[in-house]
Each structure stands twice: as structure tokens, then as C-alpha cells.
């Protein structure tokens, strides 16, 4: 049952309505930075492309721990913040 439900969600192919660049760092911006480094818009696109229900996160911080790129190599991330202040303005925030 579970795989059918996630399959339906993935087929829905949700597209963002608008986008803007992050102005200041937050937990959400940190996670978006990690998804975008791995070549995805955000968690929604990652789940659609990789057909997964869950993204591995650090329990202490809630930051993304591991992502699989489109070429199937993995990115591993630290518990601590990785998106420096000078990188924040490069992060795109998608509005659905």
C-alpha cells in the first residue's frame, strides 16, 4: 500500500508557484542549501525523483544527513550548519 501512495504523489509532479532567494539563515534554508547542493530544488523534488518517503536527518538538529544525487552518488552532511552567511543569498526558496 505504502509504495502505491508515494507513487501517486510522485506522479503528481508538484511544481512551485514562485521562488525567491533567502535573505537570512534558518533551519529551512540550511536544508534547502543541502538539497540544492545535491542537485534538487527541495525535499518535494527529491522525494519525487528518488521515490522515497523519508529523507535521512540528524535527530539532534533536524538537518538533512544524507542525499543521493541523480547520478546515484551520495552526499553526506554534518550535524552542524554548513551553509555559511556568504552562501545564504544563493539558496532559492520555492513557494507551492
Automatic annotation (TrEMBL):
Family statement: Belongs to the MEIG1 family.
A Gene Ontology term for the protein's cellular component: nucleus
Gene designation: Meig1
Higher taxonomy: Eukaryota, Metazoa, Chordata, Craniata, Vertebrata
Function: Essential for spermiogenesis.
Organism: Fregetta grallaria (White-bellied storm-petrel)
PANTHER family for this protein: MEIOSIS EXPRESSED GENE 1 PROTEIN HOMOLOG, MEIOSIS-EXPRESSED GENE 1 PROTEIN
Matching InterPro entries: Meiosis-expressed_gene_1 (IPR020186)
One Pfam family here: Meiosis_expr
Protein name according to UniProt: MEIG1 protein
